[in-house]
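Example 3.2
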Amino acid sequence: MARSVDIGSKRLISLAPTTWVRWLTGDNTLEALDLLSGDFQWVARANDVLIKVHSAIHGDFLVANEMQVRPDRKMHRRMRAYAALGEERYGLPVYPVVVNILPGSSSIINHYHSELMGIVAHQDFRVINLWEVDVNLVFEQNLVTLLPFTPILKGGNAEGVLRRAVTLLRAEANLAELEPLLAFFASFVMNTDVVRRIMRWDMTILRESPWYNELIKEGIEQGIEQGIEKGIERGKEQMLLRVLRHKFGDLDAAWAARIAAIPAEQLEPVFVIALDIATLQGLAEQLDNLPSSAN
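Structure, written as tokens:
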């Protein structure tokens, strides 16, 4: 039986929490003390991490860190609640940070503000967009948490950078499990043949990752928002098309029609095939081998 591997944000940050909080805050004097529970009933998510830190100047406080695949237009409300609940549970001030992995269509907001009958509520939080982060910082500051994301960082979509990141991951036994995640994000910005030539690709591990599930959820939500019939299934179709365009460029009408003809129950298996396949011709052959109702 395949081993279940957690390659979510909690696992990544636990590799080097002090280095991570220093990078998040820009304060090189901080020391990470503990990764705390951020499960606040309705507000908890797989990509939330609550870190207790110590500062010689500020004393003990919490860093509330949310890592998300793309910007969420509702995140400002979430961070307001997350900071307040963290302070209530642990009795410590909170420094909230949102890390966006990939660009999206939603505007990026760095605060919550509301006024009602003279009552004002305000919450600032820091926002870090990974596509704006210089990839060289990962290697210069030994930011192991960001190693799986190097291809999508600024200047990271180069074969030499990918090989350097792979070498670092393979040099440490506790980092080797992160290689499929690195391959996953590399496939968004690099030729799939190049990625497969350099790295291993393990879908069993990837399916355990909240990033994979977040992208599936994104496609579902897009389908619902666009009013596509059977929103969940058609959302998967939209996500499949997005992945194919990322890997192979623009698709002609024949390919779009072929994807649209895939039955709802086969969309997710085909999505998995698409992540792993090296060429459109290879995908066509796989589709031809599906039950006749899928074509």
